[in-house]
């Protein structure tokens, strides 16, 4: 069964007649956009700077600018950033030390409020704001697109061609409708970019419609440049300086200190369980703990499960398993626990809800799984990478001596 999406000439001409060839308004009035960030204890754990930057979309897609920078004192949980802008645009936020780099769409004469937390990771594209209609509308579509791409990958993996074509056709209609009905130039720009990525084979059709719709927004010059209605402006000296400064800031962000995982060193960890409780290895209060790093998609990891379960049955009063998953999807993690019947393990997750590795997991620098560490009740590493019968042999020698 085939699904074909087309745009009639009548519809195109109707769109053309609805657009006027307005001239660019050289007297655009700038209005303040205010961004309020609510910081958790991690983000404000030390003095640092925060920067609001982006492009002057009303000038050119080449005109980079740092809108604002504010110093954050240690323990300061609220910070306000500002930008004077004549039209809507997408800004980004960068912390000099702790905190994510992220996009934050803003409009003139508006205020957006957003929680910033350690669990946001090193970066994210969009996040739902406490307040901020423009940001949240883009966030909602971004989440919709993630759902579409996930469904598409699932169908591709099962080679369901008819369902793939149907899903793609529906998404194409949805995305083209968003482009045609956009009330802001930045939405047209966003729709054009996403459509071009999702449907590269239909780029001429997408670009033709985008060029027409873009004429409704003559003051959005970055949009005009993107769709080919206007030649890309050269990079100004101010834009170059802003770009160099942002590169310097990123380069100077402190690197994560890796933990020393040598035998004899302490390894006291604290990860979150499925209910959001932070559980430390020291809280288990047992002679020996196997800190096991695994993931639902790792077959060798799950092949170790029978041996580890046997070790728990053999030494229930002396041995515990602290299983840290590297899964980026909570559902897959929980499903694997149920499939393998490992509820007797202490299960923790090493990633944030957005799928990024937590700061502690990055400090551990786990590159290969399965990986495990055996620690004693003083939290010292006494053995590493105990797989199969080797785990039982080492426990026997320790507990039966």
Automatic annotation (TrEMBL):
<protein>
    <submittedName>
        <fullName>TlpA family protein disulfide reductase</fullName>
    </submittedName>
</protein>
<dbReference type="GO" id="GO:0017004">
    <property type="term" value="P:cytochrome complex assembly"/>
</dbReference>
<dbReference type="InterPro" id="IPR012336">
    <property type="entry name" value="Thioredoxin-like_fold"/>
</dbReference>
<feature type="domain" description="Thioredoxin">
    <location>
        <begin position="247"/>
        <end position="401"/>
    </location>
</feature>
<dbReference type="InterPro" id="IPR050553">
    <property type="entry name" value="Thioredoxin_ResA/DsbE_sf"/>
</dbReference>
<keyword id="KW-1015">Disulfide bond</keyword>
<dbReference type="GO" id="GO:0030313">
    <property type="term" value="C:cell envelope"/>
</dbReference>
<dbReference type="InterPro" id="IPR036249">
    <property type="entry name" value="Thioredoxin-like_sf"/>
</dbReference>
<dbReference type="InterPro" id="IPR013766">
    <property type="entry name" value="Thioredoxin_domain"/>
</dbReference>
<keyword id="KW-0676">Redox-active center</keyword>
<dbReference type="Pfam" id="PF13905">
    <property type="entry name" value="Thioredoxin_8"/>
</dbReference>
<keyword id="KW-0201">Cytochrome c-type biogenesis</keyword>
């Amino acid at each position: 069964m085939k699904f074909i999406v087309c745009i009639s000439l009548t519809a195109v001409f109707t769109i053309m007649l609805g657009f006027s060839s307005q001239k660019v308004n050289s007297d655009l009035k700038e209005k303040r956009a205010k961004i309020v960030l609510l910081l958790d204890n991690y983000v404000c754990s030390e003095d640092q700077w925060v920067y609001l930057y982006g492009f002057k979309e009303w000038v050119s897609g080449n005109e980079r600018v740092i809108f604002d920078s504010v110093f954050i004192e240690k323990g300061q949980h609220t910070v306000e950033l500002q930008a004077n802008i004549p039209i809507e645009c997408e800004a980004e936020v960068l912390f000099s030390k702790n905190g994510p780099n992220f996009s934050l769409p803003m409009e003139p004469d508006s205020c957006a409020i957003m929680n910033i937390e350690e669990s946001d990771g090193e970066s994210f594209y969009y996040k739902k704001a406490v307040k901020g209609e423009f940001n949240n509308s883009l966030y909602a579509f971004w989440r919709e697109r993630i759902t579409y791409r996930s469904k598409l990958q699932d169908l591709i993996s099962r080679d369901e061609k008819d369902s793939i074509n149907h899903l793609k056709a529906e998404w194409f209609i949805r995305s083209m409708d968003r482009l045609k009905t956009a009330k802001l130039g930045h939405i047209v720009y966003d729709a054009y970019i996403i459509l071009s990525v999702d449907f590269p084979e239909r780029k001429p059709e997408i670009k033709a419609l985008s060029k027409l719709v873009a004429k409704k927004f003559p003051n959005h010059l970055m949009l005009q440049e993107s769709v080919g209605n206007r030649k890309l402006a050269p990079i100004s000296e101010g834009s170059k300086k802003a770009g160099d400064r942002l590169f310097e800031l990123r380069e100077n962000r402190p690197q994560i200190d890796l933990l020393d995982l040598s035998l004899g060193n302490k390894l006291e960890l604290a990860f979150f369980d499925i209910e959001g409780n932070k559980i430390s290895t020291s809280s288990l209060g047992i002679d020996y703990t196997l800190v096991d790093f695994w993931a639902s998609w790792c077959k060798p990891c799950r092949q170790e499960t029978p041996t580890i379960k046997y070790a728990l049955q053999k030494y229930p009063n002396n041995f515990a398993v602290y299983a840290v998953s590297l899964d980026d999807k909570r559902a897959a993690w929980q499903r694997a626990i149920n499939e393998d019947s490992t509820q007797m393990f202490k299960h923790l997750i090493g990633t944030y809800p957005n799928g990024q590795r937590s700061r502690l997991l990055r400090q551990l620098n786990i590159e290969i799984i399965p990986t495990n560490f055996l620690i004693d009740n003083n939290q010292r590493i006494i053995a590493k990478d105990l797989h199969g019968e080797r785990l039982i042999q080492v426990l026997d020698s320790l507990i039966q001596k």
